[in-house]
Structures are given as C-alpha cells and as structure tokens.
Amino acid sequence: MRTTLLIRGPPPAPYRPPASGSAVPRQVVEGVQRLVDGMGPRTAVADRILLSAMDGYRPEGDWKQRVTAVALRVREAFGRHPQLAAVWGRYASGGTGSRLVMEELLQALSTSGLPDEEIPARYHRLAVLVAALVASEAAIGTAPPPEREQGLELFRVAVFGADPAHFPALTRFGRDILPLGAERAPAFEEILAAQLADVEATIAR
C-alpha cells in the first residue's frame, strides 16, 4: 500500500523581484511568480521525498559508490511515490532535500579527481540522467494494468510483426529485445555505471 505525503506549514515564499533599476522586464517577473504559485505545492512534496531519500545517509566508499548510493536512494524514494517523479523530473525542487542531494553528488565528484571547472557540467549530466530514468520508470509504474498489457501487445506486434525484408536487424534481434518496462533496476544501475565510467575515463586522460 502506498502512503501519501502531506504538506504542512506555510506556502512557498513569493518570488522577490530584482531591485529597482533592474533590466528584467515586468512580464518576466510576473511569469516567474505564476510559476512559483502554480508549482510550489508539488515541488514541495517532491522535495520532501528527496529529504526522505537522504535520511540516515552516510557517505561510504569511493566517489562512484557514493554517487550510485544517492541515485539508488532517490530511485527507491520516488518508487514509493511514482506520481510525483515526473513533477521532480520536470521542475526539480529548491528545498533542503534537493540541496542535500546536490551537495553529496558535488562532494563525491570533488573527490574523483576531476578538475573543479568540469564538476558542474558532470553534475548536470548525472542529474539529467537520474531524473530521466526515475521519471521514465515512474511513468511505467503508474500505468494501470490494462494500459500496461496493451503496451506489451503493441510491443509484440511491432517486434514480431516486422517484415524481415524491410527490418532485417529487428527480425534478427527481436526475440531478445526486452520491452521498456522489463528489468528496470539492472538497467538503471548499468546506465548509471556507464556514465560514471565515462567520468573516470575523462580523469584518466
């Protein structure tokens, strides 16, 4: 049974426009305010999930193990609340939970041997990768059983119904190709490991 996180406390603070004399147009300021007003509650809940993911966390192992541990914690936490994973993947969050995740990933990368000037870009790639994988997995997990079964049937038709004359590679490998919803956990870890290996290769050069 899934639990529901409840938001308690004051609403998000209003957006504060730049000081007078700023060149930022009024329309931009108003647009940001609407974004904060509209997304605040959902991003606040997403941040609570990140906060729960980091609860009790203690850095252990080398930098790759630390990054992997945080990513798996985030995946597990949003796996319990998949309906919010897409919100986090689309809008991120700006609270303590988000800061804890960012801080640990940046600290881990700082011990990897990467030059400081490369760490922000590498962090961004990791964040995009993890958010995309978590949101994708959540989208599959929240689909009702009839919809999932329909998706599997469409996958079978696309793969096994392909004309060998026009799709020779698909015909050759089709029986070994898994649908997107299969073996998500090992796929998550292998994709993340490949990204970390790329970082490591950059350090070695």
TrEMBL record:
GO terms for biological process: negative regulation of DNA-templated transcription. The keyword Transcription applies. Gene3D superfamilies: Tetracycline Repressor, domain 2 (1.10.357.10). Residues 1-24 are annotated as: Disordered. InterPro entries: Repressor_TetR_C, Tet_transcr_reg_TetR-rel_C_sf. Pfam families: TetR_C_1 (PF02909). It comes from the Bacteria. Keywords: Transcription, Transcription regulation. Residues 59-201 form the Tetracycline repressor TetR C-terminal domain. This is TetR/AcrR family transcriptional regulator. It comes from Streptomyces koyangensis. The lineage of its organism: Bacteria, Bacillati, Actinomycetota, Actinomycetes, Kitasatosporales.
